[in-house]
């Protein structure tokens, strides 16, 4: 996999992630004042970032 495919995957996948994220956390759907909802919000962001970072690291290591 090269960087062009990586970019496409995370731009298109990120768009779907953001749309779904909006649907889950739009006003009235959840409340970020609720600790459980706030924790879910943080876990989703950290999970997406960790997966993206791990995938990028994997590509860098494979290129060595």
Backbone CA Rg:
15 Å
Distance between termini? 13 Å
Structure classification: mainly alpha
Q: How many domains in all?
A: 1
Query: What is the overall pLDDT average?
Result: 91
Any low-confidence stretches, pLDDT <50, length ≥5? Answer: none
What is the count of DSSP helices, taking H or I runs of 4+ residues? 2
Strand content: under 5%
Relative helix content: over 70%
What is the succession of H and E elements? HH
Largest sheet: none
What would the principal axes of the Cα set say about the shape? elongated
Count the beta strands.
0
Question: What report would you give on this structure?
Answer:
It is a single chain. The protein has 64 residues and is an all-alpha fold. The protein has one domain (3-62). Helix content is 80%, strand content 0%. The protein contains 2 helices and no strands. It has helices at residues 3-25, 35-62. Helix 1 (3-25) packs antiparallel against helix 2 (35-62).
